[in-house]
Amino acid sequence: MLQFDQEKPIGNLYKITNKLGSGSFGEVFKGFNMETNEIVAIKLESQEAQMPQIKHEFQILSAIQGNGIPKVHWFGQWEDKTVMVMELLGYNLEQLFNLVNRRFELKTMLMLIDQMVYQ
Ligand SMILES: Nc1ncnc2c1ncn2[C@@H]1O[C@H](COP(=O)(O)OP(=O)(O)OP(=O)(O)O)[C@@H](O)[C@H]1O
After folding, report:
1. Rounded CA separation 27/3 (Å)
2. pTM for the whole structure
């Protein structure tokens, strides 16, 4: 688990509030823009990471902006971490699946397939 000073603003603008989850690299937190109060997602990766990934993710996200792809607001160094501040997305597919007792209707499945294939 990453250690950091939650009170110290990221890029002089963003503050972390709570953890959303973690992936194969990095941890993702909910936070907000101190000037506008916009809620954001903040991904942190240790600068000590053996195989740094977050810069690649930042470059790819910046290149493929669009529907369902979080907009990147800020990328840089903070304390001893590399940080990407991005748009906060809603529920992921697993969370939505759980909300409907792990059973999607045929219509939902067809809409998902349509999005996966054509968007
Ligand atoms: N922009 C975002 N808005 C809201 N939640 C997010 C956002 N990005 C990531 N999360 C949540 O944070 C958690 C970790 O995301 P992360 O991108 O680190 O890993 P992952 O995509 O789940 O897995 P992997 O790193 O293996 O691809 C997930 O539960 C995901 O739903």
Report:
1. 11
2. 0.89
